[in-house]
Amino acid sequence: MARVLVVEDDAQLARALRINLEVRSYEVAAARNGDGALRLFAAGEPDAVLLDLGLPDTDGVELIKAIRSRSRAPILVLSARHLSGEKVRALDAGADDYVTKPFSMDELLARLRAATRRRRATAEAEALTVVTTDHFTIDLPAKKLLREGHPVRLTPTEWHLLEILAASPGRRVSQRALLLEVWGPAYAENTNYLRVYMAQLRRKLEADPSRPRYLITEPGLGYRFEP
Questions:
Q1: Is the pLDDT of residue 128 over 70?
Q2: Over the Cα atoms of the chain, what is R_g?
């Protein structure tokens, strides 16, 4: 069960967040201010944080910095501040996403799922460190790819796709999960994006791209990396 820390001084919104999260099997801890948030954080690190910038006792950006200094848990900002400067400050401080109020609860939950999946994939990738096949080597922490001893240049999108698949060797990753991870909720049905980028990856990695050995398609379901 994933644990979410909700930092929100609006009691009605905090209650709505708690109800929607708990009904989806999240464990919820809630704080009304920055001090309370840090106390709860010290008591047990959450898997994600939903944080309002307009707290009564502290600047939300400073709280983001304090959390980020001790944890890599995803931080999703909830704020009525629409100015791009506010968003930039929050994201530069370490927030992973910025959701402006009022927002759709379904969209917020989708963003939360995407953020926690990204964090999980990153943790798994870091644990694997290096993936070696007969034809190429993926150095996940260094974000380097060598094919027969020579570096292969990948675009950021190609690398993100390969990283997610390589972090779960032998396991199918659904089309929807890949689209949400790499492009976000607005692109969850754009399966043509996957076909294009997977074809590009195969041209760079496979000896015979038309008969892939490593990047396997499971038609209509997703993709699998076989080392």
A1: no
A2: 20
